[in-house]
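Supplementary notes for students who missed Thursday's class. We covered one full example, reproduced here. Read the sequence, then the structure, then the short commentary at the end.
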Amino acid sequence: MRRLILSMIVVLAGAGAATSALAGAMPEYKLVLQDHKFAPATLKVPANTKFRVLVTNRNAVPSEFESSDFNREKIVLPDSTVTVFIGPLAKGTYKFFDDFHQATTGVLVVE
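Structure (token representation):
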């Protein structure tokens, strides 16, 4: 019985390490919300690839990173960062915005 439990622990630990390795290989990009603007306002990413975007809000009020084009929305509290997983997407241009401040917009260019 001990061997079975030990074997299960080893298998689960290996699966967790493999998942971490795959997640670490995922491309990562950064967006900053400051003065109610995205920086950069245009973010270029590869086509047909899943990636993550770290969205940091340096404003004093909450923001909401949102896109109807690639169906994501995530609230970003002041002085915090959230991770948004996106893709894979086909080549093209996709808009995103701050739903709480809709004049704050950006573009995702997938190449």
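Commentary. Helices lie at 2-25. Strands lie at 28-34, 37-39, 42-45, 51-57, 63-67, 72-76, 80-86, 92-98, 101-110. If anything here is unclear, bring it to office hours.
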